[in-house]
Amino acid sequence: MRQNHFLSPTLRDVPSDAEVTSHQLMLRAGLIRQTASGLYSFLPLGMRALQKVENIVRQEMDEAGAQELLMPAIQPAELWQESGRWDAYGPELMRFNDRHSREFALGPTHEEVITTIVRDDVKSYKRLPMNLYQIQTKFRDERRPRFGVLRSREFLMKDAYSFDINQEGLDKSYEKMYEAYTNIFTRCGLDFRAVVADSGAIGGKDTHEFMVLSSIGEDTIAYSSESNYAANIEIAPVVTQYEKSDEVLLDLEKFDTPELKTIEELESSLSVSKEKLIKAVLFIVDEKPVLVLVRGDHEVNDVKIKHYYEAKKVELATAEQTIEFMKCEPGFIGPVEVSKTVDVIADFAVEVIVNGICGANEKDKHYKNVNPNRDFIVKQFLDLRFIKEGDPSPDGKGLIRFAEGIEVGHVFKLGTRYSEAMGANFLDENGKSKPMIMGCYGIGISRTVAAIIEQNHDEKGIVWPTSVAPFDLHLIAVNLKNVEQKELSENLYKQLKQEGYDVLFDDRAERPGVKFTDADLIGLPVRITVGKKATEGIVEVKIRKSDEVIEVHTDQLLSTLEDYIKRQG
Predict the structure, then answer these.
(1) What is the DSSP string of 359-393?
(2) Contact of 254 with 263, CB cutoff 8 Å
(3) Which CATH number is 97's domain given?
(4) Domain Aminoacyl-transfer RNA synthetases class-II family profile: where (predicted)?
(5) Domain limits for position 198
(6) Does residue 84 belong to any structural domain of this protein?
(7) Which of 311, 309, 305, 307 has its CA nearest to residue 293?
(8) Is 225's pLDDT higher than 80?
(9) Read out DSSP for 233-250?
(10) Segment 3-27, tens digit of pLDDT
(11) How many Cβ atoms are within 10 Å of 517's Cβ, its own excluded?
(12) Which of 132, 179, 294, 321 holds its CA 20 to 30 A away from the CA of 287?
């Protein structure tokens, strides 16, 4: 590709609204341009990077036995109502009415559509297992789009769906996808971890997220200091064993705490350890009020609440709801003498608190010398808090450490969540109708490109891994007015293309400094510069990753490139 007519507008200055490196570099290197908040056009350079990732994804999916198809982005509301997700999915679902007032949504995912396709056309166990995938634009109305294409409202995604006759078959399909994802992200040159995760609005139980390690990651990974254990912080179980002190139980006493609403204010004013404080948080779980208790130095994990109740929706109670159910404003609520309409559940750490402090359900009042099971009744003691750094690893090996990660892939075991709701059944060998067992497997293609840049850049620009670089080589003619340089550049351009290389040929009438700066910014793996030694048949070869520069005679250029490619694996 000749750069003179190639749409690759580079920027010298960092855009003021670009917060993270990948967003900055994708704008500066001419990969993307913003159309509106959370909406981006991929320019030719960015499109080629997307296609390189897509090609890797297709190769590994096909190798795993999956079949590609393409489903509509627009989905009728009836399908989502049939699965029960029309109301449960939330405001991120982009909904609209057509000219006939029929309700539709722009698909954020395609469980409903694929389930109807297989339901209507696959009837026998002899046709299963089956795995179908697509690469398509998805839509989610993000409350706050940010970080460029890492959190946008329109994005490119690969989503796959497996259908099996039993759990054993699903386990095999899941393992194939897990292996395929491992191959995909390894080939993309990423440092990643597969972590145990929560399935969220998709549904299902067994699930892993593929997380690219990055300081700007929006998800926290809890991992063991001494093993391969890794889990999303939302799902990591706490296995800490708590011991109850043998101090004498004192009488319950209400006391004044004017304007002391937070744990920090109580700790400071009363000179008491957070471990003595009982934090009470009111949630609305599928319209039911639930008071959740944790120790003052811990944080409530709402995902664990959702799993305990097998709930569709868990939300923090509003101030109005808190007053309605607790007869008190937030900041002073507690578990003593709570209405029977409110469930009270508590973290294991609360059970061993002796002579603690909690809200008295009265403004500016708290109780001291509070003791569980004596002064209040708990429906169930559970693991309800977020794991912390320094906690024992759930696998019994080492202690928990934290790292940030960018989610680029997610694999789910859906089970019969959709097949039962939507009647996707098959006839087994005995002619008995049974629901298909489903799995779901997603990869954010555009997210993966951004994650690659987050992990592969320096102060000059992007440093593309060879497997996903938009072009293999950047050929630069320093001075096209020089006959020898122009002739050698043109000959090399033709020769390299004939050898199967993707070449970006900088044939622009720009100063050498501009060309070199742009080349470093774009970050193709190898730069070949035709300059003053063109008359001798000598060119300069620069390896972008190592900044290694060597002079090579054109007779040895192809063998030099081959050696470099071999070193890259």
Answers:
(1) E-SSTTEEEEEE-BTTTB--SEEE--B---TTSBP
(2) no
(3) 3.30.930.10
(4) 33-465
(5) 13-236+402-453
(6) yes
(7) 305
(8) yes
(9) TTTPPP-PPP----PPPP
(10) 999 999 999 988 888 889 999 999 9
(11) 16
(12) 294
